[in-house]
Write a structure and sequence with these properties.
This protein has 309 residues and is an alpha/beta fold. It has a domain of 165 residues: 3-Layer(aba) Sandwich (Rossmann fold). The chain is 26% helix and 26% strand. The chain is built from 9 helices and 12 strands. The strands form 2 sheets. The protein has an 8-stranded mixed sheet with strand order 6-7-8-3-9-10-12-11, sandwiched between helices. The chain is globular, with a radius of gyration of 20 Å.
Length: 309
């Protein structure tokens, strides 16, 4: 792996919400979240809905709503990601493949939006090549976003990031609406971009597909990271993983028995004391229910669990 491109230390994200009729109170939705992404790496971020994956992307890119605030430390190539620096880097050195296709400008033809992401010239040629890979016809560049199907729009968004020249690409659920072949091709493109020396953060529900292309998997639960493991460890099976939630996530995959996890993920504002997974964890003890559990290094990865071995 290359140099560290993105370093996040103890990130918190809070929303200033009304508490009753007139007063407001902070609602913490991301807490003590830490992760590192290096040049040449695809880091997949996995977890159930509501675990904070998309909020992480928005925090990195300075796209949180007005009633939100972020704390902790975010560094891009060793320098703090201040709001002013984010605005300068966004779209040039940091590119987003957003979850919503509404990010496409409805008043601009597709070709102008994709080619406009290319900062080094040769935009038309690069666009033609990437469109061919995603089975998008030449006519696509002359269309407006409303004329695209959902799957086409997502492929256009991936194309925009792919030719942007950005050193860090954050792909937030880039494959829904695509066929399996198109999704595999999209992830193959991200893999190739990483192999060229870029850093890719792939936010996804599809752990199976991510394991085929990612280097590491960061597992999110209730607004924080509970484990970072190699993709190889996910492929090796349950016993290679460290955290009980990661193992439960592995067992929930269709090919591994499709075993559901009892209980539900806690909501922000009603988080349990101690380990956030303790109410659902068969390994939980009294020690797990007191104080926040820190991340620690274990077997070449990281885990937030006192019982992990």
């Amino acid at each position: 792996m290359g140099d560290v491109i993105l370093q996040i230390n103890d990130l918190t994200v809070e929303f200033n919400m009304y508490d009753g009729r007139f007063s407001r109170a902070p609602l913490r939705v991301i807490d003590a979240l830490s992760m590192t992404v290096r040049a040449g790496e695809v880091l997949a971020v996995a977890g159930s809905s509501g675990s904070g994956k998309s909020l992480l992307a928005h925090a990195i890119l300075g796209l949180l709503p007005g009633n939100a605030s972020a704390g902790g430390e975010m560094l891009f190539k060793g320098e703090p990601l201040t709001p002013e620096r984010i605005r300068k880097l966004r779209g040039s050195e940091i590119a987003l493949v957003p979850q919503s296709v509404s990010y496409l400008d409805p008043l601009m033809r597709v070709g102008a939006q994709v080619a406009g992401a290319d900062r080094s010239g040769g935009a038309k040629l690069a666009m033609k090549s990437i469109f061919e890979r995603f089975a998008l016809s030449e006519e696509t560049e002359r269309l407006y976003p409303f004329q695209l199907s959902g799957g086409m729009a997502r492929r256009v968004l991936v194309s925009t990031a792919a030719i942007s020249g950005a050193e860090l690409i954050i792909a937030d659920e880039p494959t829904p609406g695509m066929t399996l072949e198109q999704a595999v091709e999209a992830l193959r493109v991200f893999r190739e971009l990483a192999d060229e020396g870029r850093a890719v953060v792939l936010i996804t529900h599809d752990v199976d597909l991510a394991c085929a292309f990612a280097d590491r998997i960061a597992v999110f639960y209730a607004g924080t990271t509970v484990e970072t493991a190699s993709a190889e460890e996910f492929r090796a099976g349950e016993s290679a993983l460290r955290h009980p939630y990661s193992r439960a996530l592995w067992r929930a995959l269709p090919q591994n028995g499709f075993e559901p996890i009892p209980g539900r993920q806690p909501y922000a504002g009603s988080l349990p004391d101690g380990c956030l997974f303790a109410p659902r964890c068969p390994m939980a003890t009294d020690e797990c229910r007191s104080g926040r559990i820190p991340m620690r290094e274990l077997r070449g990865g990281e885990v937030r669990c006192i019982h992990a071995t």
